[in-house]
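Sequence in, structure out. Go.
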Amino acid sequence: MAAGSSCGANALVDETPRDLRPSYYAARPGKWRDMWSVLHPPYTAWHLSYVVIGASLAPHLHVMRLVETLCAFFLAVGIAAHVLDELRGRPLRTEIRSSTLVALAIIGLLGALGIGIYGITQVGWVLLPFMVVGPVLVVAYNFEVFGGALHNAATFAFAWGAFPVLTAYVAQSGRVSVGSFLAAGAAFLFSIAQRTLSMPARLIRRRATAIGGSVTLSSGKSIALDAAALLDPLEEALRAMSWAMVLLATSLAIARLA
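Output:
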């Protein structure tokens, strides 16, 4: 991949990044469409799939506990974490009032904590550490506390990948197991892959003003680089992985409930 030279580079410069949506699933700004964008539907479904996977690995699957765990993570991750992210710099360019975003974050975190407290009455105090760690991760990651020390790939992969698997397993069984740790490790690595693919895609969509360059093949043919050439492989992989995780989680739940 070679950057275009200044001589004759105009033919290889793509100005379209200025007009790109901030994410491939973002709706145009306004009203309810902003809430759709803020919820990051493909990623929310992807991370909730880890909850289903963790629960499905438990020796006994309690449907109501699974539903409660899904609701808790939807409130904490699907809503609270995402509105806090939007509150910092408006990366999705929504028109939602800041006061509304703050209210949604508080409601999401308190709702998740409320479900966790009820879960303790059903499962036991083993859930308490998860109730503490979850909100701390949401706030620490999105607000980049401790000088941003926790705003990194490892924290993201643990908080949005491994943590849901382990929490869902404990909510079902009251303990952890070797299998749950291995599944959490897989979710951690999938989340690393997700972040690795999404970071450059977001950079192009949200911050790039022009793209220039070309790829020269061994045949001598030159392929111009533009936004689509860079984004398509990244986002096709993200789409495929998000759907694959949802299908995997659904298949495991169906197998356990059949």
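Check: Residues 50 and 165 are 5 Å apart (CA to CA). Residues 9-257 form one domain.
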